[in-house]
Amino acid sequence: MKILKIITLTVLCLVLFGTGYALAAGNVLIKGSTTVLPIAQVTLEAYLKAHPGVNISLSGGGSGEGIKALIDQSTDIATSSREIKPDEKKLAETKGVNPVEIKVAMDAIVPIVHPTNKVKNLTIDQLSQIYQGKITNWKEVGGDDKSIIIISRDSSSGTFESWGHLVLSGAKVTPKALLQASNGAVVQAVSKNKLAIGYIGLGYQNRSVKSLMVNGVKATAETALSKQYPVSRALYMYTNGQAAGDVAGYINFVLSPEGQKLVAKEGFVPLVAEKAHKPAKKSKEK
User: Fold this and answer.
1) Which of 121, 226, 278, 285 is most buried by a 10 A CB count?
2) Contact between 158 and 80 (Cβ < 8 Å)
3) pLDDT along the chain (286 residues), means of 10
4) E strand or H helix at 225, and its extent?
5) CB–CB of 259/269 below 8 Å?
6) Largest Cα–Cα distance in the chain?
7) Which of 121, 115, 141, 116 minimizes the C-alpha distance to 130?
8) By C-alpha distance, which of 113, 114, 31, 66 is closest to 122?
9) Domains of the chain, with CATH numbers?
């Protein structure tokens, strides 16, 4: 029995994680963004209830890790909170991979502080100066005379890259920033530190932290969709070529009215009908 278990485990590892191995037939793997993770979880749960014979596994790790897995052909769907980069596209081409982008929701990146912090609004410039380490005291932005503790996502995160583009305009985050691997970890860190500032996806807001306005605009579904809120972005799923079979079936569900209702329920912004991507065509089973 022990020998059989070892052989079975070895084969499973080769199928799931071995670079260059074809993904197992009947299994769908999803990997990537921790921001998109709640959307994937809730839609996946609903989809599997209606399709009990389908086997789909889900994991996080960050947008960069998801796209890397797609390029390595070790995942069927890469979830990402940023667009694929030109160098990633080029690498994919060299490996015979054709990343196809599917927009699944809109999001806002929200700066958060401890609930006791009296600051309510920061401008893009102030946020940029804080994260570059040029503004170091809360009194410089209308708060108490206390040092600012900077909490940031790590570099594998699509949210980190979106923040760097939309807020920092490409400038580097101060090396004094405390890096966290997920939105949930940022929330936890800020909720426990009265001097901290962090940033999270719209769907991760809760009462343990205080969300700030940016340029006087509150992050909501409406302001994110209209782009009135200045730190808005799209959320994506990527496939290798046009999705087919169970992969297409799941993505079509995410884009369906039922799937988009679940997106909204999780606190993210569903796509308006005229901007939604057309569902992928599901291949006929032989």
Assistant:
1) 121
2) yes
3) 32 36 64 94 96 92 95 97 96 98 96 98 98 98 98 94 96 97 96 98 95 97 91 96 96 96 92 50 44
4) helix 221-225
5) no
6) 69
7) 141
8) 113
9) 2-106+235-275 (3.40.190.10), 107-232 (3.40.190.10)
